[in-house]
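Figure 6 in text form: structure in, sequence out.
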C-alpha cells in the first residue's frame, strides 16, 4: 500500500512539474510571437489570422527569405465572386513560381480542420483549370501559370496536429493561440500597438 501511494504521489508531482515547465516555456513562446506580431497591420479579429501569421514566421526556417517570398492571404475569384483564399503561398524568388501552398487551420476540432483544409486545397486545384483571377490584399495579381508547378501542398495546425493528420504543427496549442490573439487585440484596443 505504501509503495502504491508513493508511486501515485511521485507520478502526480512529476506531471505537475512537467505541466508547469510547459506553461512557463509556452509563456515565453507566446511573448515572443506577441513581440513579433504586435506592430503588424494584420487584422487579428478573425480567429485564424493569428495562426496564419505565426505560420508565416515559422516557415521562414524552411523557406529562407534570401531564396523565397512568403505571402499570406492570396485569394482567387471567378467572375468577380470570391471563390477562396490561400492562407500561405511560398514563391521561389529565382523563378517567380509558387513553390508551396499551405492551408492553416487552428480549430478546436482537428478532424473538422483537416477536412476543411483538404476541401480548400481541392477547390483551388479544381479552379486553377477555370477562368480565375488570383490576387493579394494589396491588389497585386498573379498569373495562373505561377501556380502550375507547385511542389508542395500541405496543411498546418496548432500544436498537436501532426498526430491528428496535419503535415506541420505550430509551437502553440489552440488555447495559447487564442491567448496570443487576445493580447494582440487588447494591445490595439489600448493603443499600445500598431
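Output sequence:
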Amino acid at each position: 500500500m505504501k509503495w502504491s501511494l508513493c508511486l501515485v504521489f511521485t507520478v502526480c508531482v512529476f506531471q505537475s512539474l512537467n505541466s508547469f515547465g510547459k506553461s512557463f516555456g509556452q509563456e515565453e513562446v507566446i511573448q515572443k510571437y506577441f513581440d513579433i506580431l504586435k506592430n503588424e497591420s494584420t487584422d487579428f479579429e478573425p480567429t485564424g489570422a493569428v495562426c496564419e501569421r505565426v505560420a508565416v514566421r515559422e516557415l521562414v526556417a524552411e523557406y529562407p527569405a534570401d531564396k523565397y517570398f512568403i505571402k499570406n492571404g492570396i485569394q482567387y475569384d471567378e467572375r468577380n465572386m470570391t471563390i477562396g483564399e490561400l492562407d500561405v503561398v511560398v514563391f521561389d524568388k529565382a523563378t517567380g513560381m509558387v513553390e508551396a501552398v499551405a492551408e492553416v487551420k487552428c480549430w478546436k476540432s482537428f478532424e473538422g480542420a483537416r477536412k476543411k483544409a483538404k476541401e480548400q486545397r481541392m477547390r483551388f486545384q479544381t479552379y486553377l483549370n477555370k477562368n480565375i483571377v488570383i490576387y493579394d490584399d494589396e491588389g497585386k495579381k498573379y498569373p495562373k501559370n505561377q501556380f502550375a508547378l507547385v511542389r508542395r501542398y500541405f496543411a498546418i495546425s496548432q500544436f498537436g496536429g501532426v498526430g491528428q493528420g496535419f503535415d506541420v504543427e505550430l509551437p502553440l496549442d489552440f488555447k495559447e493561440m487564442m491567448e496570443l490573439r487576445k493580447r494582440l487585440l487588447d494591445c490595439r484596443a489600448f493603443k499600445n500597438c500598431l
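Caption detail: Residues 3-22 have pLDDT under 50 and may be disordered.
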